[in-house]
Design goal:
With 169 residues, this protein is α/β, with parallel strands linked by helices. The protein has two domains: 1-92, Aldolase class I (TIM Barrel); 93-164, no CATH class. Helices cover 40% and strands 18% of the residues. The protein is built from six helices and seven strands; from the N terminus they run βαβαβαβαβαβαβ. It has a seven-stranded parallel beta sheet with strand order 4-3-2-1-7-6-5. α1 packs across α2. It is globular. 31% of the residues are buried.
Length: 169
């Protein structure tokens, strides 16, 4: 299975320089990954560097979702105006009990994906996370397993559990 088409590569370290961005996007193009995720600040430059070879995704309210309800739409609009093709909008941290109604709302909104984590929580993606999201969503929205994925076998395992995308850092 060609796993690269399922990969979102995140370029989200706060110390990222333009040179880092250029190198990582060049590498992602070479590997034929699907998406690069960047802060809204980097969207325009990432789109230029990707040259249509990658989808550029902007993270909104990353990593903790602690922006106000007025700030999140503003970040979304600015990112879209800068040519981002996808948005990852972070909700405030949820308990397992809050996950089901949140996923149901996301499905009703028409959003395409729900993600296991931002990578700043206690652990990366777990089998339990993917199973929980799959049991609630039944692939609508699709599931993105994110963070802590270090090996191809691990990523393939998440895809076999129902995830349709994996996010690596």
């Amino acid at each position: 299975m060609g796993i690269a088409k399922f990969i979102d590569h995140s370029i989200l370290k706060p110390q990222t320089t333009e040179k880092d961005l250029e190198e990582q996007i060049k590498r992602c193009i070479g590997l034929k990954v699907y998406t690069v995720c960047v802060y809204p600040y980097w969207v325009k430059r990432a789109v230029e560097l990707a040259g249509g070879e990658l989808v550029v995704c902007a993270v909104v309210s990353f990593p903790f979702g602690m922006d106000t309800k007025e700030q999140k739409p503003s970040q979304c609009l600015e990112s879209l105006e800068s040519s981002a093709k996808e948005l990852e909008i972070v909700m405030n941290f949820l308990t397992q009990e809050e996950t089901k109604p949140a996923v149901e709302l996301i499905a009703k909104s028409g959003m395409e994906f729900v993600k296991t984590s931002t990578g700043f929580s206690f652990s990366g993606a777990t089998e339990e996370d993917v199973k929980l999201l799959y049991s609630v969503s039944r692939s609508r929205p699709k599931i993105k397993a994110s963070s802590g994925i270090k090996a191809k076998e691990q990523g393939l395992g998440f895809l076999l559990l129902g995830a349709e995308s994996i996010c690596i850092f």
